[in-house]
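sorry for the late reply, my laptop died twice this morning and i had to redo everyting from scratch. anyway the thing you sent over, i finally got around to it. pasting the sequence first so we're on the same page, its 445 residues, then the predicted structure underneath. double check i copied it right bc i was rushing
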Amino acid sequence: MDEEYDVIVLGTGLKECILSGLLSVDGLKVLHIDRNDYYGGASTSLNLTQLWKRFRGDDTPPENLGASREYNVDMIPKFMMANGALVRVLIHTDVTKYLNFKAVDGSFVYNKGKIYKVPATDVEALKSPLMGLFEKRRARKFFIYVQDYETNDPKSHEGLDLNQVTARQLISKYGLEDDTVDFIGHALALHLDDNYLDKPAKDFVERVKIYAESLARFQGGSPYIYPLYGLGELPQAFARLSAVYGGTYMLNKPECKVEFDENGKAIGVTSEGETAKCKKVVCDPSYLSDKVQNVGKVARAICIMSHPIPDTNDSHSAQVILPQKQLGRKSDMYLFCCSYAHNVAPKGKYIAFVTTEAETDQPEVELKPGIDLLGPVDEIFYDIYDRFEPCNDHEADGCFISTSYDATTHFETTVKDVVGMYSKITGKVLDLSVDLSAASATTEE
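ok and here's the structure:
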């Protein structure tokens, strides 16, 4: 271990693995260490026995749930937008050759106590029971505007400069009702709150566009894709990639301690009496707890079921977003469902997650609106975890720390953090202009 590296990465969580892969591809010498004897850190994937041990304290789950090894329960379950940033990163690094994806069956939104398919195009808007007759026409016009909008073609802008016009002003031009704005903003553009309404509309329009393009990509019922066997495959795929480019991985290295010089700059990492030198350290919040601050908590319920979520057209995999206004909350709630169709559970079994940014310390009560939508569950585990953000000056100490995973059931916020960290570490902007067709080759229908 006594060598010098450009970067030492601590923790094999998804964000750390993606960064380690990107930096290796860039030609940097990377050492990647984890204190655990398994990949994934907070975003690991557990079999049934491990799940039982973690949440029930014993390792004998009931036999009627099927074989333990047939379960791959992701601790941070998130779907990928087919045309989104993560898929671009996977193609950019050529990690797609290690993974098999399958389209996700459905994307839904909660409105006035019911679940509806999210309409994302002018055609779907006209069919959607979410809206009345006149609202459908207004929504159709809005979707046509979004579909035709091209940044470089001023004709498509209809006289609006989206760098100046706010999302609220754009929406009012089409006269859309509050409930419509709710599902477009939260279930299509995937905004976490309503602050976007008073910001320039360009980001909002581009997000809706990515959703619609992703939906068209696989002709499935949703814009999302998910790897077979779950996300546990991702860190390992990036580990393989890093190794191809000369990166070194070491698991099961206890007490990884970051060493600093007299000016407080990171110069290496010590474990088991050996020190590896480096110029920069990349890690998750658990490795440098004195350089992060607590910014909230995520409440979640993990459920094992024997049926799909009701009212989702029997979807074997689905996301349902419950916008905050519908629940009188300050943050959205998310339902995630996956099953044996993606090889994450034995035949006939479904894994569902209900997650939200915790506003109380009673997950059972707080998550009830989401859990009530699931129907009967075989088993349910409640959990609450802290969310941290870095509060250090990375230029002064050479430490680049990721933020904890949020409650969302899609990858957009995760990748934003990774891309931002990449720029801070390298001083370059990550070029994600790739040929997206490279990923569809690995998609099974």
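The first strand starts at residue 4 and ends at 10.
thats about all i looked at so far, will dig more tmrw
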